[in-house]
Write a structure and sequence with these properties.
Length: 270
């Protein structure tokens, strides 16, 4: 079995460990690092997975998953590069950081796969996009996809599209949460109790998501099916268009893409 080391046990790291365990991966094939001793002990007690320092985790790992925040990457790479066994697969889930950054800090020829997941990983419903670095083969991509497949769906994209992926699906859940928050507020404005408004909107969002996933119809057709002539829905759609909601969403996602590019550049120039 492949031994996997997860460096960084924040929400994404913990969710990945939990998903791998739920998929049948033995706890003995997993190890993680965590800077805070109390947090490490709590995770070990709850998940049954051992914690280690970076050197210990990397020493026996076939795959090293780097799940730290971009601003914490420099000291980790300096430490990891000195102890990583040549040929070990490195999988990065760090937003905005290119594979070249990792390749430059690792032993020559290290295969690196870049992944952009999102927070629904915590409920096993992540959308992850992965890209191969200069030395990663189809087999390395298969291994990375198997790992990420334990916590959701996976697609493969050229690395040049990763900043767009970050903006669209990496940040995407926040856009939906923002929209749901506004709709709940609207329900309260219209006289509904908050709990009732939340139940109505969350279930509607869940049902709509299932329809989008399971139907072969374009979103336009699904929306038109709800939009009766001279009805309530078209009145609402007219107001959304009048206020430029569609254009605002496009501009927002473009801004997120630009910020992803900036993050990658800022780390590389430190």
């Amino acid at each position: 079995m492949t031994r996997i080391a997860v460096l960084g046990a924040g929400k994404i790291g913990e969710s990945l460990l939990s998903g791998l365990l739920a998929a049948g991966r033995p706890a003995g094939d997993l190890v993680f690092t965590e800077r805070h001793a109390e947090r490490a002990a709590e995770l070990t007690a709850r998940l049954g997975v051992a914690s280690s320092d970076v050197a210990g985790a990397a020493a026996k790992a076939d795959v090293v998953v780097i799940a730290v925040k971009p601003q914490d990457i420099a000291p980790l790479l300096a430490e990891l590069g000195a102890v990583l066994t040549p040929g070990t697969l490195v999988v990065s889930v760090c937003a905005g950081l290119p594979t070249a950054l990792f390749e430059g800090a690792m032993p020559a020829g290290t295969p690196v796969v870049r992944v952009m997941p999102n927070t629904p990983m915590v409920v096993g419903e992540a959308m992850s996009a992965l890209s191969a670095g200069a030395h990663a083969t189809a087999e390395h991509l298969d291994r990375a996809e198997e790992i990420l497949g334990a916590v959701g769906r996976v697609v493969r994209v050229p690395e040049g599209q990763q900043d767009a992926v970050t903006a669209l699906s990496g940040s995407g859940p926040a856009y939906f949460f923002y929209l749901v928050e506004a709709m709940i507020d609207a329900g309260i404005l219209l006289g509904l109790p908050r709990t009732v408004a939340a139940d109505l909107i969350v279930q509607s969002a869940y049902g709509a998501a299932c329809m989008l996933r399971d139907s072969a119809d374009h979103p336009v057709l699904l929306r038109e099916a709800v939009t009766s002539p001279a009805g309530t829905t078209i009145a609402a759609i007219r107001e959304l268009e009048r206020h430029g909601v569609r254009a605002a969403l496009i501009d927002a996602i473009e801004a997120a893409r630009d910020r992803s590019v900036e993050l990658g550049r800022s780390v590389q120039t430190r």
